[in-house]
Design goal:
This protein has about 140 residues and is mainly beta. The chain has 1 helix and 7 strands, in the order αβββββββ. β1 (about 35-40) and β2 form a beta hairpin.
């Protein structure tokens, strides 16, 4: 059985990278931590919200690598010298990735009440119409 991909469709030319992006985004953050929401805040803007209780601004890093938004969290281990009778609050590192479409830009990030908000906006694409000349080849 042949695997159907975007790149194999005859009317979609130049989308070879899209197959890799879909596969890569399916693999990242497979354990579900930290939980997150993605909401559309207007026709051209989005907000990603991650639940990062216990993380400070210094414990978090947000990077944009090509078209991939990567959020990393790493807490300093301050449990030395403390005696826990029960430890149910996870203090583990994480990496969560989101693939952004062309034209989607990160507008900012804010940490509020244990939630990390990342605001995104899609720039309106310019309509470009180009006429392609046809040359006559020798008869």
């Amino acid at each position: 059985m042949t695997k159907l991909t975007f790149a194999s469709h005859p009317h979609l030319l130049g989308f070879e990278r899209l197959d890799g992006l879909v596969e890569r985004s399916a693999k990242t953050g497979a354990d579900g931590y930290p939980p997150y929401n993605i909401e559309q805040t207007s026709d051209a803007s989005y907000r990603i919200t991650l639940a990062v209780a216990g993380f400070s601004e210094d414990d978090l890093a947000i990077t944009l690598e090509a078209s991939q938004l990567v959020v990393r969290g790493r807490q300093k281990d301050e449990a030395e010298g403390r005696v826990f009778l029960h430890r149910g609050i996870a203090a583990r590192q994480f990496q969560r990735s989101f693939v952004l479409a062309d034209g989607v830009e990160v507008r900012g990030a804010a940490l509020e009440n244990g939630l990390l908000h990342i605001d995104l906006e899609r720039a309106a694409p310019e309509t470009v119409i180009r006429t392609i000349g046809i040359t006559r080849k020798g008869r």
